[in-house]
């Protein structure tokens, strides 16, 4: 091994955030559906590069805020969208969302403009 060789630094994780809109009358059902997320869905998310993924809810109007970290957010979303398990999960979740906020549509990431480490 070459003592002068150095390992390439790991790609930096990017923090991304997105919004989803639940039907306010289906919030409780949506939360219940997330009490047991299919293990194969969790595995697919990890394999696709989703890290430190969290969902937050404003119950009054069904606003969902998603937060995830990834080395490559575009590749992360493309990878999960290409899986059969994601298609099945999104089909199951579709009934909880406002018609204009389909969960199977590409995510629109919010602009990240400040971070306090």
Account of the protein in words:
- The protein is α+β, with helices and mostly antiparallel strands and 117 residues long.
- It contains four helices and three strands, in the order E-H-H-E-E-H-H.
- It has helices spanning 27-33, 39-47, 73-81, 84-93, and strands at 14-21, 51-58, 63-70.
- A three-stranded antiparallel sheet has the order 1-3-2, with no helix packed on it.
- Strand 2 and strand 3 (63-70) form a beta hairpin.
- The longest helix has 10 residues, at 84-93.
- The radius of gyration is 17 Å and the shape is globular.
- It starts with 13 loop residues before the first strand and ends in a 24-residue tail after the last helix.
- The model has no long low-confidence stretch (mean pLDDT 91).
Task: Reconstruct the topology from this structure.
Elements lengths: L13 E8 L5 H7 L5 H9 L3 E8 L4 E8 L2 H9 L2 H10 L24
Antiparallel strand pairs: 1-3, 2-3
Helix-strand string: EHHEEHH
The helix-and-strand class reads: alpha+beta
What general outline do the C-alpha atoms trace?
A: globular
Give a count of the beta strands, DSSP E runs of length 2 or more.
3
Task: Summarize model confidence as the mean pLDDT.
Answer: 91
- Percent strand equals 15-25%
Percent helix among the residues?
25-40%
Alpha-carbon Rg, integer: 17 Å
Give unreliable regions as ranges: none
Terminal CA distance reads 36 Å
Strand order across the largest sheet = 1-3-2
Largest sheet, described in full? 3 strands, antiparallel
The number of helical runs is 4
